[in-house]
Amino acid sequence: QVHLVDSGGGLVQAGGSVRLSCAASGRAFSSYAMGWVRQAPGKEREFVAAMTWRSGTSTYYAADSVKGRFTISRDNTDNTLYLQMNSLKPEGSAGYYCAARIVGVGFYERPDTYRYWGQGTQVTVSS
């Protein structure tokens, strides 16, 4: 089991940058696939980015809407996941949630496959 705590959200102007962090506690952090999912008011959860890590090799997944602007990374030495968000747009305003799941057969872009969730951190992008 893993416990996740999100942080780093806030108010930012369009075109600006924010870095989110997700501190994980529990066993075998490096064995989990980690991701970020966002949800705006009145909308469904939306996949943002995910990554897996095996034997020193990372595999990355990202929604088309954030490719080239958002970067997911992890530090297995201190059990932290990051999401660097650049060139933010107003439509990116949402609660951002860190999530974890067992590495498996794929479908990392599906929020419903994640088992563990952070409490979320709000990002508001002003135009």
Summary keywords:
56% strand; single chain; 127 residues
- β-strand number: 11
The number of helices is 0
Low-confidence stretches: none
Oligomer: single chain
- Rounded mean pLDDT score: 94
Shape by Cα distribution: globular
Structural commentary:
The protein is mainly β. 0% of the residues lie in helices and 56% in strands. It contains no helices and 11 strands. The strands form 2 sheets. Strands 2, 4, 5, 6, 9, 10 and 11 form a 7-stranded mixed beta sheet that branches. A 4-stranded antiparallel beta sheet has the order 1-3-8-7, with no helix packed on it. The radius of gyration is 14 Å and the shape is globular. The mean pLDDT is 94.
Write a brief caption for the model.
By secondary structure, the chain is an all-beta fold.
Task: Describe the SSE topology.
Layout: E1 2-7, E2 10-13, E3 18-26, E4 32-39, E5 46-54, E6 57-62, E7 70-75, E8 80-85, E9 94-102, E10 116-117, E11 121-126
Parallel strand pairs: 2-11
Antiparallel strand pairs: 1-3, 3-8, 4-5, 4-9, 5-6, 7-8, 9-10, 9-11
